[in-house]
Amino acid sequence: MTDRGTSPKEEVRRSEAAAYICHVLRGYRAVWAIDFEYEVTLSLPVPVVLVATDLISGRTVKRGPGEFGQCPFRCDGSELFIAFYAVAEASCFLALGWPLPPRWLDLWAEARRLNNGRGGGNGLLDVMGRFRLPVRDSGQKKAMQILVGEGNWHAADIPAILAYCEEDVRDTELLAYAMMPLILSEAPDASRALPQAIIRGTFVADCALVERIGVPVDVNSFNLVRERWPEIRQLLIADVNTHYGVFQGDSFSAKLFGDYLAREQIPWPRLASGALQLDDDTFRQRAKSEPRIALLRECRVALSQLRGNDIQVDADGRVRTPLRPLASKTGRCQPSTSKFLFGAARWTRSFIMAPPGHTFAYLDYKSQEIGIAAYLSGDQLLVDAYSGGDPYIGFAKTAKLVPADATKESHPVMRAACKAIVLGVQYGMSAEGMAAASGVSLDTCRELLLRHHEPYHGLWRFVQSYRDRLAAGLPAYTPLGWRMQLGTGSDLNERSNGNWPIQSTGSDILRAAVIFTTQAGVPPCATIHDAVAFV
Fold it and tell me: How far is CA 61 from CA 46, 106, 311, 459, in A?
């Protein structure tokens, strides 16, 4: 352990920082820097010790094995809880049967936000190092995590575990003092910075409850498919091969697929080397405009994505997967695709089965990204198209591709083509990509891009302004304060940079939805990109 002693001058600074943070958070009855040490299990953790210090009064709460009892905190919103990755602490509240506090400030979430786009670690020691705070030896920290996490501790170890936990709380306290001025100042509107930070922290904590609920499945069907998957795989390949003839044994053959495309006269994009593009994005786009490919694409997805040994079903028939909140640049959750039921092949969702007396609901937003783009850009024509209920037919009418009285039902093919084009524009898709996705000719797509530029000039200016801002190394923000700033040498991907504010604002909305539904007593059982599921 490094020398963590403090000089009188440093003590004065710490006292001033404590006074500052207490002033900022004076609306709360107590502000707890909190940490649990717990055994790691497949589902809920097993809390071993708890240490929490109230930054306002200086009072410390400690609990060890057999001492947890009733919750020692007020979980009615009058007290704020400061943690580093609040999923862990919130999971311990749930494991103990304590009510989940509705107000959290997560220093990990704020470090992740401040560092978004720049690279580098966001662990506790990484972040403390960035703020030039004294850090403990990482080897000692790892050894203690293994001792407690694997359940190898004994009663004689409890004093040392409590001391270790108290050090974590002190680190959290020091980091809060160091980070708070930046959290409050590094935002477009300082008056909203703290509420927005608490939204992010509370969302991270609420993810613990979402993970705990889990997705209910038909265990018998799931286990049957997993047990007989080798046989099912062979039957699936044999059946699909009668239509396409592209599998050689168990393996997909690029040569045989090329022969099939030539026989059917289906155009297909190629790499610079001349080889066929065989990634799933290409298959998905081509399947939209070429129905003959759809079945083959579904087969490939099923064969590559179903990993029954990775998707674990707990004893109560629920699939529980860490959501990894705020993990993406846009602030979305990024659960493991091999362990998350919604990350596997789409047909595996048929395993979902609500328990008796319940139902399962999957709720998504209608044309959300179009609505966000319209609102953020202030493009009135796009606002009108979205307000009309069908922005894709709206664009088709604006581009004079369909008559003024056209509907989704009267012009389904043209609407589908315009949908691919309108969504593609937001992602910076090229005319070539749009042609592949929509089935419309390349020349027509080039013409449609020009037609889109002219009426929706407000949207195009908005998208370009974000590209320019990020390319210049300046920070960009969403309405609820999620942030990105590219560091030196970062990938200047114009497509993703132009769409960043739209997807990231969708993440803002999702966080608010999870918090509102959770505090209304109806927490989700999963988040899927911008959608939520309930049981």
Answer: 19, 19, 38, 53
Alpha-carbon gap, residue 64 to 96, rounded angstroms: 13
Tell me the two tokens of residue 33: 């820097």
- Minimal CA–CA distance to 325: which of 113, 99, 29, 8? 113
Q: What mean pLDDT do residues 495-518 have?
A: 90
Q: Which residue in 320, 314, 123 sits closest to 209, CA to CA?
A: 320
Beta strands in 344-462 (DSSP E): 361-363
Rounded CA separation 205/123 (Å)? 17
Which tens digits make up the pLDDT trace of 116-171? 988 778 888 889 989 988 877 777 778 888 999 898 999 999 999 999 999 999 99
Cβ(308)–Cβ(226) under 8 Å? Answer: yes
* Distances, alpha carbon 483 to alpha carbons 42, 176, 276, in Å: 33, 19, 38
Taking only the tens place, the pLDDT of each residue in 33-73 is 999 999 987 667 899 999 999 998 889 999 999 999 999 99
Reduced to 3 states, what is the DSSP secondary structure of residue 257? helix
Give the model's confidence band at 306: pLDDT under 50 very low, under 70 low, under 90 confident, else very high: low
Strand 79-83 and strand 30-39: pairing? parallel
Is a pLDDT exceeding 50 seen at residue 4? no
pLDDT at 186 over 90: no
* Run of H or E including 303: helix 294-305
pLDDT on residue 3: 39
Question: First vs last Cα of the chain: how many Å apart?
Answer: 47
Q: Distance between CA atoms of 207 and 282, rounded to whole angstroms?
A: 33
Cα(34)–Cα(83) distance, integer angstroms: 6
Residues in contact with 68: Cβ distance below 8 Å, sequence separation at least 6, in sequence order: 47, 50, 96
Phi-psi region of 132 (alpha: psi -120 to 50; beta: other; left: phi over 0): left
What pLDDT is recorded for position 10? 56
Distance of CA 43 to the CA centre of its chain: 20
- Nearest one of 488, 510, 492, 489 to 500, comparing CA atoms: 492
Spatial distance between the Cα atoms of 280 and 277, rounded to a whole number of angstroms: 9
**In sequence order, which residues have a C-beta less than 8 Å from that of residue 84 and are 6 or more positions away?**
35, 106, 107, 108, 124, 127, 168, 171, 172, 175
Look at residue 267 and give its three-state secondary structure: coil
Cβ pair 74, 28 in contact under 8 A:
no
Instruction: Give the percent of the chain with pLDDT over 70.
Output: 91
Report how far residue 168's alpha carbon sits from residue 13's, in angstroms, rounded to the nearest whole number.
Answer: 20
What is the distance between the alpha carbons of residues 216 and 353, in angstroms, rounded to a whole number? Answer: 6
| CA dist., res. 5 & res. 151, Å (int) | 31
Give the whole-angstrom CA distance, residue 209 versus residue 340.
16
Q: Look up residue 217 and give its DSSP letter.
A: B
Q: What is the token pair recorded at 452?
A: 């889109």
CA-CA distance, 437 to 416, in Å (whole number)? 10
Distance CA 231, CA 227 (A): 9
Q: Which residues pair with 105 in a beta bridge?
A: 82
